[in-house]
Amino acid sequence: MLDRQAVKEHVMELVAARPLVEEAFEDRSRLNDPIVRMAIERVVEALDRGELRVAEKGESGQWVTHVWVKEAVLL
Asked: Which residues, in sequence order, are CB contacts of 17 under 8 Å at separation 6+?
């Protein structure tokens, strides 16, 4: 059984990672910040576990790209 608090914290961690990834993609000097690097690593780890996807089929049947996740991979 999943611990709801742990799941909530994990989701919040990924939500907090998004602006850090976006900032680092625009300004590569941000990669020197260990917090930014950790955020990128967490996103890639979530991808590896299948918790995130770079793209997914939306409700309308159209594919939606999560650009910030793709940026984390590229970084």
From this structure: 39, 40, 42, 43, 72
